[in-house]
Amino acid sequence: MTKRIALATSADYAELHPDERPLLDALRAAGLDPVVEVWTDPSVDWSAYDAVLLRTVWDYFWLYAEFTEWLAQLDKAGVPVLNSTDQVRWNSDKQYLLELRERGVAIVPSQVAAGACLREVVAGLAGQQIVVKPTVGGNALHTVRGVAGSPELEQALSDLPDVVYLVQPFVPEIQSDGEWSLLFFNGEFSHAVVKRPASGDYRVQESYGGQTTPTDPPPAVLESAQAAMAASGPTPTYARVDGVVVNDRFLLMEIELIEPYLFLPQSPDAAGKLAAAVAARV
Q1: pTM of the model as a whole
Q2: What is the pLDDT of residues 119-137, one digit of tens each?
Q3: Residue ranges in 103-240 assigned as alpha helix (H)
Q4: Residue 19's domain spans which residues?
Q5: Do the domain assignments include residue 44?
Q6: Domain shared by 69 and 165, yes or no
Q7: With the C-alpha atoms ordered 167, 56, 261, 190, is the resulting torsion angle positive or negative?
């Protein structure tokens, strides 16, 4: 019997992002029956599916409590989720970076702070260019950059919501050399891109004018990304490892295990690789 796979998406991308749609044909070619479902739609019977593949659930951090409750409902119904709900919960809060650091992974230096502690941490970095971002979030939401101690950054911090933040030094190599994204399916390397921000910006997302170039990673970058993924736990169905090279050393910025943009247009065979990875899991 053909196994039915729900591709979970957000209401804004009820038919998937256009770049993701080739995945539907690839899943069919792999012998699966894919159906796109909006994760917030209360009418969906998730138990009717053999598995749920998380894709463009790009609003989950806006609806974080609802998202974690939905994951709990899937667990209760016994519906397998790709990636697993344990991996998703762990990956949904960027404090996982500190865990990976303890496991020997080189990360961009990071501190976690909230409330009054945020001001104390920033004060301790006076004069340095820093970036402050929520530990739960995405697409540079509530992310600010500036010189610690400057009036401009103080004002920007005052405008932020009262949540937990990651405080990091600004890495100028992101502007000069770009940020790496390496894609893996069932632990196997698929493809990579380098993302560069628009002139004068530091955010590499396309919504802020960033540019993306398919690029073969040097062996040291690939090995570092593989080591970071291995340190994150059981092999995920899909993963995107983001990082930057500083002084010839790859520093991890994020491991994306929930709903990473997969850069499928930059690698024509990537959709087929992911479909094969999904078929091997269900």
Answers
A1: 0.93
A2: 899 999 999 999 999 999 8
A3: 116-123, 151-158, 173-176, 219-231
A4: 3-91
A5: yes
A6: no
A7: positive
